[in-house]
Amino acid sequence: MISQMWREAGQQTLPVMFGYLPLGAAFGIVAIEVGIPWYAAAAMSLIIYAGAGQFLATTLLAAGAGLTEVAVATVMLNSRHVFYGLSLLKRFQGAGWRKPYMIFALTDETYSLLTSQSAYSHTLGFRVSLLNQLWWCTGTLIGIAVGSAQLFNSQGIEFALTALFIVLTLEQARRLKQSLPFLIALVTGLGALFLLPERHLLLGAIGSASLLLLVHYRFYQRRGDHHAV
Amino acid sequence: MLSDPIWQLILVCALATFATRLLPFVALSRQADHPLILHLGRYLPPAVMLILVIYALRDFTPLMPDWRLNMGDDGLPMLVASIMVAGMHLWRRNALLSIMLGTGAYMLMVQLGWSG
What we know:
The complex is a heterodimer. By secondary structure, chain A is mainly alpha-helical.
């Protein structure tokens, strides 16, 4: 009975495993390459546990960014998680001791698995969350081993992050089918690229994009149009 | 241990990440339906993604100072690999495949030298 539910959780997380093992390994290799000690890289996958967030942290670490900047950039990057939680408020009710961990472990992939389960139970949800982080940490350890042993020339592997962001942007565009946020991102992103020093680029671009969205919201609210385009 | 900048950064990063995941659970659930929250929830994530693409490609330099094409790791390989990722993803919509193809192609180009 118990092992059957573990097997079900394992089957559900299989596609995430195929994504998290190589991506976690890529993170481990990149972390070693920019000079982060192996135990710090492993700790990041254990206590931060955010794919893009961890790559961003290595980038900021290599660029010598300040703590405030790291905090703000991380919150901005992960702000989408706020909206994940909003739709899981009811589902997580009554999860008891499992709830804090399930909130901590709420990555994009875990969110999509939990919200697509037809027969949801707290036990199954918890095991899916736990297994996903196990794949991520295992991948990180593999990457650390590969990166430290220099088994192969990993020069250029950090492009995996660029590729990930391109794929996520295309997925967002496919879902939204509206050009507004992408126009805003182009204007603020390219504007920040040409006007701001590199270490303030991300913060400046995301901050001004949020402001433009706020202005856009006020503008359409005043016109009484709730289906703002 | 806490005086080490790496551990400070990891802790700040961990707390900031957890805070974004925890926020809706400690906030009142009726705020979930506030139109501004819905507005930002709808438009901010896609904008952030494209900004991250621009950020990741910030070092792109197509031409060398002497007007020759730049074949280094911040030159044309960046552009070619990005187009491969986007093209592959529009064609097959398999995230892992697109990422692995583009990253593999980029690594080959910058390691083997592409200029000839």
